From TrEMBL:
It is found in: Golgi apparatus membrane. One of its GO terms (molecular function) is glycosyltransferase activity. Its main location: Golgi. This is Exostosin GT47 domain-containing protein. It comes from Lolium multiflorum. Pfam families: Exostosin_GT47. Residues 74-406 form the Exostosin GT47 domain. Keywords: Glycosyltransferase, Golgi apparatus, Membrane, Signal-anchor, Transferase, Transmembrane, Transmembrane helix. GO terms for cellular component: Golgi membrane. It is a single-pass type II membrane protein.
Amino acid sequence: MESGAPKDRHSVGQGSGGVSLLRPPRIFCLTMLSIVFWALIFYFISTMQGDMASLLPKPSAFSLPPFRFGRDRCVGRYIYMYDLPPRFNADIARECSKFAAGVDMCKYTANEGFGPPLPPGDCLPEKGAYHTDQYVLELIYHSRMRRYECLTTDPSIAAAVYVPFYAGFDAALNLWRSNLSARDALPRDMVEWLVRRPEWRAMGGHDHFLVAGRGTWDFVRGEGGGWGSAFMTYPAVRNMTVLTIEASPWLGNDFGVPFPSHFHPSSDDDVLRWQDRMRRQERRWLWGFAGGSRPDSKRTVRAQIIEQCGYSSSCKMFASTTGVHNSPNGIMGLLESAEFCIEPCGDSYTRKSTFDAILAGCIPVFFHPISAYTQYTWYLPRDYRSYSVFIPQDDVAKRNASIEETLRKIPPAKVARMREEVIRLIPRVMYRDPAAMGVTFKDAFDVAVDAVIDRVAKRRRAAAEGHEYQDSVDGQHSWKYDLFEPGHKDIGPHEFDPYI
Ligand SMILES: *[C@@H]1O[C@H](CO)[C@@H](O)[C@H](O)[C@H]1NC(C)=O
Ligand SMILES: *[C@@H]1O[C@H](CO)[C@@H](O)[C@H](O)[C@H]1NC(C)=O
Ligand SMILES: *[C@@H]1O[C@H](CO)[C@@H](O)[C@H](O)[C@H]1NC(C)=O
């Protein structure tokens, strides 16, 4: 798995901190120059002599491919994207005015899912800032994939197959219906369409993936009824990789990807400048909470947070009566002025605010491992203490633990290290402008595509050797597979066992 990866990235030292973007070290540039030089020499020789092949040892079994400089950058990275009938995506997106009661989501589905651009504010970058909604990932991934550098129209060379079905938008329209077969109508239609395709039959769908801009819980209704559609329970979809904003720890084929935040940069420099700004940011508050109360919260961690923050002179939160928490600039202002940002479970385990906090260079404080640690294993370091604070929610809700005391006990040098780690994560969890050119950093889309390709490749290799690759199980231990260190294989006791 990838999640140790941020540590291994090249970084150019700027002070002791280092920059998280990939900047090639000088030796790499020199090597590239010399490769280009020699390639040119070879090119001249080959055009003069006509046939390059005569200079090379003869390959045994197959003829020489056409001469190219270096390797095809896309080998092993090609994606085949279905051109789906519009009833599975574009037609649903057009129903945006019906996605949510009282909110016209059409504003937020504009700009390929980024929503309306924000005017320059104090707390967001001058360009690339948008009012982005939390449920729009299907659009963001689809529009990015249309411009993916290694898109292919030939499924036989594809490393993975992308299904641009807007499962979450369909859920937004149909989840509330009491008629279960109506709720499942389009998901069932989608699956029946897929399994008839020759592209599907090649690997039984094990190379297929899709993105659902809602949590897994909306798609795993049991036969007896209950919440959601049954989409992710269908055998075909169980063979696929599904990216959601909140994965289940028990399913095995779904993976959490970052919620979209409010900054969608167009260049490496945009990101480097923002990271620098967050490093220098003055943080007046020890802790901050960008959230409101819930009606049913008496002895919940959320009620405790609001109570404890209210008593403290080092904590900042929104007064729940003002509308300010709907303003991205207001939210970012709060998160940027705090050392620690409190991220309790929201309506579900995860919150968009977690990614707003990372963007703000604010150290997140979690109360449940499913809020992040078992969730974004492709994105966040395995050592969660390196970038976040974990306070078990029962300590706060049942045992009256003081959040502020816990945070004050962390030595300032450790706080600085954690913040630097958070700032280093920023590019990995953002969604860049799909039209941007010449960007070298990997954003959340790139990380997801790499991870899917890796997951499929393992299955492909195993199938070639005549067995089935197993990197997860369904059921209670599935989350442990996602947290394995490379090479590790045994399901043993885990420190998160008491919570999951
Ligand atoms: C439920 O929905 C299905 C499919 O849309 C429809 O055929 C059926 O008549 C509906 N049943 C009821 C009771 O409305
Ligand atoms: C799912 O994959 C299995 C092999 O792992 C295959 O036997 C089965 O046919 C696939 N299901 C569908 C619906 O294609
Ligand atoms: C919880 O702790 C606070 C401060 O430590 C104290 O004032 C309060 O009375 C405690 N509440 C309960 C229910 O023990």
